[in-house]
Amino acid sequence: MHTSLCSVDAIRAEYLGLLKKCLTRTLFPESQIPASRVPLLRHNPLGKALRALSRPLLHPIGLQLSGAYQQETRAHGLDWPVEAETMIGTVRLDHLHTCVVSVLEERISGDFVEAGVWRGGACILMRAILKVYGETGRRVWAADSFEGLPKPDGRHRQDDGDRHWTYSDVLAVSLEDVQAAFARYGLLDDQVVFLKGWFKDTLPTAPIGAIAILRLDGDMYGSTMDALDALYPKVSPGGYVVVDDYHSVAACRQAVQDYRSRYGIVHPIQQIDGSGTFWRIQ
Fold it and tell me: Are residues 108 and 135 in the same domain?
């Protein structure tokens, strides 16, 4: 019996490890240059030359504008992949994997929710873990506009001047494309629920019950706050709150700090890598 259980665990680990390598394209690196985070550098020949000259200066501080695939850069989610289903990197995927297995093994109640899914990679991983553990009573909620990020609307001064909405050529991924990504991995079924629209419009009335994993990847102050306001009260004791952009986007970090301060949340924030953080509800 012990040998059989070990074999099941080994098969799960091998499948999920292979899946993560596929989702990040570390198994078969992309041949095309990852997208730059700066439109000028993506589209302007002079900008591309400037990118090449500036790369040695930017590398020491951990910023990757673009360039040929680099394993360490992809591992920490520091580029925008051309083909991969996720941009969060293997370190944050591994952490999410650990969180999901933890709530399953400890029987923490609730579904898994990601607010800001891009091409769907993190949600695909969560659905895959449910599948290999035979969990049929939980759902994965994928909330996104599927149109990129919103243009600042004046609701939050912290988002004044935010330019994420100008990156629609990279950040806008249609619902149909995300669904197709789930289907490629054989994971598009009724345990995956898509919420299309701006968080402020969809999340307050979404029919989501208890949450075991809440993953926030909204970048902006407003998007992060909208998700926290609507979903944080539903996170079960023992559940995880994961914030993808805490250290990479100041407005996101400020939203998290403001929300925690408003409600006296003292669960310690822990680091995942240079960008992501998490805490666990006690």
Answer: yes
Closest CA to 84 of 118, 114, 60: 118
Instruction: Determine which helix (DSSP H) or strand (DSSP E) holds 144, and give its type and residue range.
Output: strand 140-144
- Is residue 84 one of the residues assigned to a domain? no
Query: Under DSSP, is residue 25 helix (H, G, I), strand (E, B) or coil?
Result: coil
How many domains are contained in the chain?
2
pTM of the model: 0.86
**What are the beta bridge partners of residue 142?**
114, 194
- The one-letter amino acid code at 37 reads R
Tell the residue number behind the tokens 């680990």, with chain if given: 13
Helix axes 89-105, 2-24, angle to 10 degrees: 150
Per the structure, the complete domain to which residue 62 belongs is given by 2-75
Predicted local confidence at residue 58, as pLDDT: 37
Q: Report, as ranges of residue numbers, the positions in the chain whose pLDDT lies below 70.
A: 1-6, 32-68
Q: How far is CA 35 from CA 38, 43, 44, 45, 207, in A?
A: 9, 10, 13, 14, 36
Residue 112 and residue 54 share a domain: no
Predicted local distance difference test score (pLDDT) of residue 35: 61
Q: Is residue 82 part of a domain?
A: no
Residue 215 and residue 152 share a domain = yes
